[in-house]
Amino acid sequence: MHLTLRPFAPQDAESCLRNWAADEEIYRYLSAQPQTADEVREWLSSADEAYADPRTYYWAIEETHSGEVVGELFVDNFGTSSRRCEMDWKIGTAFQGKGYAAEAARAAIEYWIREVGFHRIEAKCCTENTASERVMQKLGINKEGILRERFCGKDGRWHDLAEYSLLAHDL
Prior knowledge:
It is built from five helices and seven strands, in the order βαααβββαβαββ. The chain is an alpha+beta fold and 171 residues long. Strand 2 and strand 3 form a beta hairpin.
């Protein structure tokens, strides 16, 4: 394994800023904006508070041999009664194409299904983000369809999203 998934810590600020959090390219297909140094430091300073809730599934993706935080992986929009969640990730541009997104997501999916008890894991990406679609296909996540003009991008255009899902019995 080339990666470690772990909680974020305040000392990750420089690594996050250098590798992905402030990178325009990472946010090209997202509605969110690249983060400033102050935003990253503020967010990391509250990490301990967030991790006090055991249902915080928000991890730094650390390259094991270098100790660099190369991205993030998390779930949101989850429901305990429906046992479903939506998975999101970001990988720094310099670290893309190395299989890191698939490696991190695979480990997280196994944990969320086997340990947490999620039955359904969903993921979405802009249809123009072919790299993320390849990751989902590599993971064996099933494409369910296209959400037409689901969000308005920073470029002012409406973008379609591809929706994928994996069920516990798909593993």
